[in-house]
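Researcher: Structure prediction, please.
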Amino acid sequence: MYREFVEEAKKGRIVGYRCECGKHTIREICPFCGSRDLEKEIEPEEGRVITCTKIFVAPKEFSSEAPYTVALVELSNGMRLMVRVEREVEIGKEVRFSGVKESALGLSLLFEAKGR
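Model: Predicted structure follows.
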């Protein structure tokens, strides 16, 4: 499932799974109820910032990119994702999916503020 998530993200789509309990996840097992009965769906590309922080002292793999911002974003369907944010944002700001960034540690979803 994660491999499919990565491949779809590279194509510009956020793929997730809706559980029978009504929650959304990118995992193979629902983190809310433990069910494996998940249905694939394309997730919304817009959401809002729940919390964010600017990283000034980054891990060595990202030290050349510091400072950069990471945020917990809640999509319009309630799914929450930890993402990298391009440009300045603040809590409550509306954001949209803008692409991906690959590194030695994996894939990061990139979001940007709406209505710049």
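Model: The radius of gyration is 14 Å.
Researcher: Thanks, that helps.
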